[in-house]
Amino acid sequence: MRPDPEGLLPATEPVTLIDSDGAPVTPARAAVPSETSPADVVGPETQALDAPAPHGCRQLPPTHDLVAALGAMIAARRFNDQAYALVRQGRLAVYPSSHGQEACQVAAAHVLSDGDWLFPTYRDTAAVVARGVDPGQALTLLSGEWHHGWDVAAHRVAPLTTPLATQLPHAVGVAHAARLRGEDTVVLALCGDGGTSEGDFHEALNFAAVLHAPVVFLVQNNTFAISVPLSRQTAAPSLAHKGAGYGIPGERVDGNDVAALLSVLGAAVGAARTGDGPQLVEAHTYRMQAHTNADDATRYRDDDEVAAWSRRDPIDRLRTFLTGRGDVDEARLSTFADDAERMAARLREELATDLRHDPSELFEYVYATPTPQLREQLAMLRDEAERDLGGVSR
Hints:
The chain is of the alpha/beta class. It has two domains: 5-350, Rossmann fold, CATH 3.40.50.970; 359-388, no CATH class. The protein is 39% helix and 8% strand. It is built from 13 helices and seven strands. The chain has a five-stranded parallel β-sheet, sandwiched between helices. It has a two-stranded antiparallel ribbon with strand order 4-5. Helix 8 links the parallel strand 2 (187-192) and strand 3. The chain is globular and about 75 Å long. The relative contact order is 0.16. It catalyses: N(6)-[(R)-lipoyl]-L-lysyl-[protein] + 3-methyl-2-oxobutanoate + H(+) = N(6)-[(R)-S(8)-2-methylpropanoyldihydrolipoyl]-L-lysyl-[protein] + CO2. Pfam families: E1_dh (PF00676). Belongs to the BCKDHA family. This is 2-oxoisovalerate dehydrogenase subunit alpha. It comes from Myceligenerans pegani.
C-alpha cells in the first residue's frame, strides 16, 4: 500500500521545546522562522507543544536525560575547541568543527540503543565520542594515521566519511541486513545540507523506502555547503520535504534545542524500530566556525549572521533552562567542566606523540597472500629506503 501523502509532510515550522532564552515553549508562543537570514534568526520562536507533527505531540524529555545531555554537550564543545587547537599545533592535519551543532551531535548518540548503529560524516566526531568511542581514537584518521581509529563492530559506529553522503547507502544496507536477520536494530545516518544535493542521498532514501529499512536520516542543516548557501542548493520548501517523494515521512526540528532533538529523534528511532520504516529529520542549526581550518568563512558570511546564531547557542539555552528550574547547580556545572578538561588533557597527551610508521605496512593488508606485483613494489620501497632514508625496520 502507498503511504498517505499528508502523513509524509513535515510540520510548517520546526519543533522547539526550549527557546533561545532558555524558557519552555508554550502553545501561546509564536513559531520559529524557517529561513536563515539574521533578521529571521533573532525573531520570535517556536512551535507550540500541541502543534501537529508526524509522530504526535512533543513533550520535554525526562530531566535526567536533559542533565546528561548538558554534560555531554559541554564535553563536546571542549572536544571541538581542543581539536581545533591541535590543528594549529600541527597534531591534526585538518579538523571540521561542529562547534554550535553540539545538540545534534549529542542527541544523535543518546537516542540510540546499544545494538543500534551510527553512520557519521567527517564533521561528526563529537557524535562519535558521545557514542562511546575514545576521543583520541575519534581523531586518529584526522591525525594522518593509515587507519580510522576504532573497532567498528565493537562500537557500532561506522568510520568518518569525507565524501558527501556516500555513507548513506551503506547505512541503509546495514539496516536492511539487520531487518532480514530479525534483529532489533535501528541505523541513524548523519549528513549535512550539502549532502542532500548528492546522488547518494536520493539513492539511499529510495533504497530505504522500497526495502522498508529501519533507518533514520538526520540532516544537520547548518545553512552552508562549505560556502554555498542553502538557497543555491535547493528550491524545496524544506529539506524534510524531500522525504515525501520517496514515501518517507519528514520532520523539522530546531537543531539548537537538544530537548526537541531528543524528542523528535527518539520518536523517529522508535518508529523505525517498530516497523514504520525509514524516517527523515531535518535539524536547523549553524556551523559557528569555518568549514575547516583551511576555510575563510568571512568570505561568504558576515559577522551579524554569526552573532545572531550565537544567541541561539545550544549549551547556553539548556543551561539556562535547567538552572532556572533548579535541576542543575553550580557544583554540577563545575563537575561537567572539570570532566571536559580532563578529557581535553588526555586528548593532548595522546596526540602529543610523534607518529613513527614502517612504510612496508602499506603492503601488509592488501591481500592475505601478497601478489608478485606487491612483492616487487615492496622490494623497491625497501631498496629506496635503504639508500635515501637509512632503512626501514622490516
